[in-house]
Amino acid sequence: MPASVDLPSRTTVIERFKGQGGRIAAVLPIHYPRALFRAFGMLPIEVWGPPGVDKSTGDAHLQAYACSTVRAGLSFILSGAGEVADAILVPHTCDSLQALASVLLDFTKPHQMVLTLYVPKAERASDLEFLGKELRRVFGRLVELTGQRPTDAELHAAMDREQQADEVLARLLSERGKLGVGNREFYGVVRSREYLPAEEFASLARAALDKWAGAPLPKRTPILATGIMPEPMDVLDALDEAGLSIVADDFAGSGRRLYKASTAHDPFDRMAKTLLSGSPDPTRGCGIQPRIDHLVDLAKRTGARGALFYEIKFCEPEAFYVPLVTRGLQAAGVPCLAVEVDITDPMPDQLVTRIEAFAESLS
Amino acid sequence: MSIPGQLAYQLNVNVLGKAALRVQRWQLERKLSKPGTWKHETLNAPIDTAPWLKELITKHYLTGRYANGARKVAWVTSGAPVEFLKALDYFLIYPENHGAVCGIRKVGEEMCTHAEDFGYSRDICSYARCDIGSVLSGKTPVGRLPKPDLLLCCNNICQTVLYWYQVLAHHFGCPLIVIDTPFIYDEAREHDIASVKRQIEDAFPIAERVAERTIEPKRLEDVMLRSRDAVDLWLKVLQTGRNHPSPITAFDEFIHMAPIVEMRGESATVDYYSAMLSALEQRAKDGVGALKHEKKRILWDNLPIWYRIRPLGEKLAEHGVAMVASTYTNAWGELAELINADHPMDSMAKCYLHPILNRGTGHKLQTMQKMLTEYEADGVILHSDRSCKPYSIGQIDQRNAVSDKLGKPALLLEADHTDGRAYSVEQADTRISAFLELLGV
Amino acid sequence: MANVVALGFDIGSSTAKLVGVTADGKLAFHRIEPTEPRIEDQATRMLAEARAALGGGALPVVATGYGRKLIPGADRAVTEITCHARGVWEAMGTPGTLVDVGGQDSKVIVVGAEGRVANFAMNDKCAAGTGRFLEVTAARLRIPIDEIGAVSLSTKKSVPISSTCTVFAESEIISLLAHGEHVENILHGLHRSLVSRLVAMVRGVQPRAPYMLSGGVARNGALRAFLAESLGSEVLVPAEPQLMGAYGAALLVRQG
What we know:
The complex is a heterotrimer of chains A (363), B (441) and C (256). With 363 residues, chain A is of the alpha/beta class. Chain A has helices at 10-19, 34-39, 56-59, 68-78, 95-108, 125-146, 152-174, 183-190, 198-214, 234-242, 267-275, 288-302, 316-331, 349-362, and strands spanning 23-27, 42-46, 87-92, 113-118, 221-227, 244-251, 306-312, 336-341. Chain A has a domain at 10-148: 3-Layer(aba) Sandwich (Rossmann fold). Chain A is built from 14 helices and eight strands. In chain A, helix 10 (234-242) packs parallel to helix 14. The longest helix of chain A has 23 residues, at 152-174. Chain B has one domain. In chain B, helix 13 (309-318) links the parallel strand 5 and strand 6 (321-326). Chain B is globular. Chain C has eight helices and ten strands. In chain C, strands 3-2-1-4-5 form a five-stranded mixed beta sheet. A five-stranded mixed beta sheet of chain C has the order 8-7-6-9-10, with helices on both faces. In chain C, helix 3 (131-141) runs parallel beside helix 5 (166-178) and helix 6 (183-204) packs across helix 7. Chain C is globular. Classes of the chains: A alpha/beta (363), B alpha/beta (441), C alpha/beta (256). Chains in contact: A-B, A-C, B-C. Chains B and C meet through helix 5 and helix 19 of B and helix 5 and helix 6 of C.
């Protein structure tokens, strides 16, 4: 086993960035323009839960049938852990995040600026046009917050940097099957995209690629994994122990955010095009067949022998797709296992058993 | 359209069905008008137009039964801009209303089970499970649902419909129009309105192609006028609840709302609500309340618990508590002022962006506060509906605001609109009793 | 008994089961005990006792169940899903769909050719679909767990228990008792409620006939009868329903 990749912690990154006079934006899932914030000297730090948080502060505002990501997210913001942030962005992703943003704006009213971003649920010309204008609106809000007004050239430069980071992420994911590294360590690097500046992520990920490409390949059963994100990350240890390796990634936080480059002249049009260019995503109401086709293709390309649907309980957009999409994959010869978790709970034994049983059935 | 299909449709719906339903209605009207028929201890007789309502709804589903082959059919969400489909003579099915019917007839659980057997999670909306379960099993309490030629999904009520309609589109293989309405956290921006307007415009040619005819502007205008008239009348119907005693309860409204949701834009709907309004105004004039003895008045928030309407209504009535209004039924009336047939596209765009469910949690609290004042209500029951996250999340803060700032009792009642398995009768009963004690009845 | 060639050890949440098989796959030895808190000590002792009883030779062991990773000296740990499938296939000689109602988990396993797992499902976190559900409610009704099946079958009247979770169900039972409902009718309803959860899981896995039932609860006649009724098909029970996991584990030694 080669030495681990040295990952700076979120706290270190935040302190360093603030130390250099930068601002921090706490960002909830899923799709948003990183470049827009960077152009204002702000670093977006994503809040996917986090799993360790005490949910009770959020539970004072949200019913139990809001998913654990949303309840933990609100708890995190309200607990004071979000104090380092100068602004909070809640992209419009689902009913629960919509409500979270609204509760923040209307009731809990944190002292930071709360920004919303409506992400359209289709990719038609009207959606692109709308999103371009919506991004301009957010731009206006950031001008208000920072007193700065980045030029078009600065916006394009920020987008170039994100584009390069996305390209490295795409390489990481597409070459996964040839890398001698376990799931846990691999996702440590993949998920550092959630908080590292793009340029830092790109160089760190390139170094990781070089290191892992030369490492011996452990004997593992290759699988596809989908869901919101591999959280709690203990699941990755369970996969490692069961001899399963995620070679095909369709997590909302990683595989579904491999945005395609756009050459649009106007920076907002370019940002809009990029944001709507990810792979089929249930949270954006994608078609069932396009998603089946995408996942079958992904499994075939990567040699995945099974598919793990790692879902968060009460996540409605994901849940709607499971029955038909698993059938589509199974019809294409890819057996599926669908499990549900609460990201704030410890990994249940039963889940480990299911994963192991799935591995046994694939071998 | 097939000739045998047309013939079956005309014969069964417009000749036999129409006559049979009319006879049934007369019989029911005669029965109800006989003095001494109504003997309930705490509730007064139902509104005179109830038999007419039954005729309307039965006719609607009867039409649906024979629609395939005779008319184009569209399945639509409850908040969708349907006027252009009406102008193209589509027959419309509202799966959400069908879900409500399943709930009222107490087959919600059974329908949900069909979907769950296929692998749909119990955590997804029970309307969607009812609908998908019905599609998969071919079962429905309304006889038969016609297959859609077109699906129209507007997410101004929730995001759930986006995923649900993708499932339907996959199942039926027919075109799906999505009208994506940006959520209004505080106020609508120009680009929000422009986007919705453009999406509705872009939807026209798709609907025309499926219907194999074009929209006549005059017809569209007529439909819009009838829509506005119906919405106006509906609002007035609801506002009769401001009388003391109130001639109507929200439980009545839940049942009488079917036409405003399902048959908006039809002249029969306008006729029905004018008759209903006259009947209610007469009651108000005569001082006849929905309850025999009204002591307290309350407001309901969120969808009804369809399978518990009667027991809940009776329990409240026993204590002299009239539920005089609900934010839910109000949703189909509050936008009346936004409909303007002279500017059909702009007014449609604005109207369909502003339902209560597409607006922030603070706006909903304001609506509740306003209604509490206007209806002179003493408290609120907030149905925390497991199946409706956009309506429910935010209620904890809304409840706290009502009880802390207004000092009025507010109860958060955990349930589900169609799936009785998420409702614990005993627990709910205890909570409602405690709430009634707070009201002092 | 000297012809036992392999052992299977299934340590579940309520019982520990140790099984020995012969070279031709016959179940030739077994021991069942309640699971003790110190699983490792119990496992060591049970293994030593078994080896002594079987002639003292070292025998290969495959471990399964929740305690599978705590069994000292086991050659391999395999999940109970794979083991149950293998065990029941050997015992019944046919592929099909197995319902296993355990103390903590219920599972539905589609058993394919050669006893391989074709598909499986397990109950969600809530205990309403498990043996624990019956245990809790039987305790509330003060009826010994071994008798609840017979008591349920003694009546035709079933009180519907609508609640889906054990806690809700308990409060519902209290209120039913308060309303004077008979205990046997409530028990009947409880069995129906558990069966409906199991049937929902069965339908979710694209099952194939015949249906089989294993786990300690398989001895409960009411559960078996209601399950058969709801599935519209006969439900087969192996001779030793409680041992299928351990039996399958022992059989898997040869495939190691």
